[in-house]
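Q: What would this chain look like folded?
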Amino acid sequence: MKLSNEFHKNVKEIIPSKDGRFLVKICGDSMIDANINNGDTVLVEELKEFISGDIVLAYNGKNPVIGKFMSTDEPPYVYLKPENSNYSNILFTDSIRMKGKVVSIIKKQ
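A: My prediction, written as structure tokens:
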């Protein structure tokens, strides 16, 4: 069963800093296979270039989302992949904006 809409809602809060980094509080379980769990916080570094396989902070319209950036030679070519097989990919459209790469995971105590 694919829960496509739920994957779009895995960011609870974003705390920006002045050095181009963000603390992002995670909600939900769409990234559990990347060891990013409900209640964890990730450190995101603002970047302009990404490689396939990076865990990224992106915006789907105004909605922030954490996912694995995938770029392949086969359709759907470019998409955000959840790290939980219960969820569907987010296909890239004009409304998707990449913001930064997850560089560290701070586990919930």
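The chain has a mean pLDDT of 90.
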